[in-house]
Amino acid sequence: MTDTTTGTGEISIRAEAGIAAVAGSGRRRGGLRAPAERNPAAYWFLAPALVLIFIFFFLPVMAALGLSFTDFDIYAVGDPANTRWVGLRNYTQLLGTPLFWQALRNTFYFALVGGPLSIGVSLGAALLLNQKMVRFKGLFRTVYFAPFVTTLVAVAIVWRYMFHTRYGLLNYGLGAFGMGPVDWLGDPRWAMPAIILMTVWKSFGYNMLIFIAGLQAIPEELYEAARIDGASAWQRFRHVTLPGLAPTLVFVTVITMIGFFQLFVEPYVMTMGGPLRSTTSVVLLMYEEGFRWWRIGHAAAVAFVLFIVILIATLVQLALQKRWSDA
Amino acid sequence: MSPRAARFAIYAQLILGAVLMIIPMLWMVSASLMPAGQASTYPPRLLPRQVTFEHYVALFTRLELGRSLVNSALIAFTVTALSIVINSMAGYAFAKLRFRGREPLFRVLAAAMVIPVQVSMLPLFLLMKQLGLINSYWGVIVPGMASIFGIFLIRQYAQSIPDDLLDAARMDGAGELRIYTHIVLPTIVPILATMAIWTFLSTWNDFMWPLIVLSDDAKWTLPVALANLSGEHVQDTELMMAGSVLTILPVMLVFLFLQRYYIQGVMAGSVKG
């Protein structure tokens, strides 16, 4: 479980590498040189990793699908013989549960508002840091990136106090601009924006690094040529930077969305899903259903809905990427 | 805009951004050194009037967070060490050894990375229960020992090992294990360092799975212990800041000293194709 992040502030690295590998698999194959004969030792080298991944990842994922069609609950945890097959009942029940729809809405809100905001900030920071005349690039880069490596639980606790209505630094800062205090985590309208704000702060540095790498891959001659043609700064950005960055941009969008859909730690630590369930995410709902109430069949159905949502979002974005690069 | 004004504007934004990034961290450290109650005043205090370490002392004596610190370190080190061996073997095999089904197998693994890990957690919990690993360190360690991303990272890097080098060793009669330990491992040390830091930091920071597996507070990792503490001590701002410092400081130090390797991992992960 180590390479994944169960909170959103951090981004699912596994997914990211997966997309990169799938996207690249078609192109690379011809380049490998084939040694003359097969090597039976290969299986011994692979066995430990593959056995572990199969038993502790693939098998549970398949089992989760099976569980989602059963009424596996606290009694079945005691004795699995109590499990009954219920077909699609868990799913139909979910669709009739307002809390499920609310969790889905909250998660989409977080992903569709927070994701683009995070990407925008990352791109802005990367563009600033990529200016040739900027000195101390390494220092700025480190400062912007550092929150990404911190522990999400600890950071969420710190921000819970930053958001404090009376004593928090954030309201104090707003007060300096003459704006009234906001009850960040106590007001259902503000709780999700507060979580988004913290998440952007914590995680944008990661995409920023990827954008910097992408920017550096754009040939300097293109900018020179544009300058000679009299292109303005905006025109250079629009016609040189953006097209050059397009693959990076789609890639970053996909991994960010996947990460944001897995929102869990922030609401768990900062709001417990409240107020009025305004920050209950799909994963938090799954956790509560599964590990607090032990309605595991039900929770498995929630998990699979999350999987399907992420899968569709990924496929849509990869299709868009294809269209974009073919155009 | 004149170049001078442009330069000023860029630096102003960069510095403002850096200040906004640092404030929460500085306030965390500062508040952790304030006497109880001093962080909850209006206007907010930025610096302690007098410095005290009482909250850190309380963490280690009364609240026994030292135990969680040891648990976190133990788990993170074990996962890191084991995953380096296991993933490097598989990554090397995918990169350089010839076997049936290599490409399809790798594509299946790669595609599986889109599956959110939370989907596996419910059955994994039941499996761990069957294996008697609930509430044990191994319950946290075992699922982290092999990672598709780790295999992917090492495969990328190991592909640059020249085949001639490996073939020459085979001609000289070296066995596969010897080739792996004497040629492959030394060659891929840089990516192993990158992977080690990634694994260590993400294991240390992980929350949801340790929360699920570890029920006994003597076994809790720091993030789990801290989350639990913050539920009980919502009013004790200064104490919670000390706990946050204790949780973040080790990873910050690892990152600051080894950031070159860590950032390589970000870049390597984002290489397309």
From TrEMBL, chain A:
GO cellular component: plasma membrane
GO biological process: transmembrane transport
Subcellular compartments: Cell membrane
CDD domains attached to this UniProt entry: TM_PBP2 (cd06261)
Any Pfam family matching the protein: BPD_transp_1
Limits of the ABC transmembrane type-1 domain: 104-317
SUPFAM superfamilies in the cross-refs: MetI-like
Residue stretches in coiled coil: none
Membrane topology, as annotated: Multi-pass membrane protein
Transmembrane portions of the chain: 42-65, 108-130, 142-162, 190-218, 239-261, 299-320
Family from the record: Belongs to the binding-protein-dependent transport system permease family.
Name of the protein this chain belongs to: Multiple sugar transport system permease protein
Organism ancestry: Bacteria, Pseudomonadati, Gemmatimonadota, Longimicrobiia, Longimicrobiales
From TrEMBL, chain B:
Keywords of the record: Cell membrane, Membrane, Sugar transport, Transmembrane, Transmembrane helix, Transport
CDD domains: TM_PBP2
Major place of residence: membrane
Organism: Longimicrobium terrae
GO cellular component terms, semicolon-separated: plasma membrane
Alphabetical list of InterPro entries matching this protein: MetI-like, MetI-like_sf
Location in the cell: Cell membrane
Family from the record: Belongs to the binding-protein-dependent transport system permease family.
Protein name: Multiple sugar transport system permease protein
Pfam families linked to this entry: BPD_transp_1
Example of a GO biological process term: transmembrane transport
Claim: Cell membrane is one of the keywords in the record: yes
Residue intervals passing through the bilayer: 12-34, 69-93, 105-125, 137-158, 179-201, 239-258
Chain ranges of the ABC transmembrane type-1 domain: 69-258
SUPFAM superfamilies documented for this protein: MetI-like (SSF161098)
Protein topology in the membrane: Multi-pass membrane protein
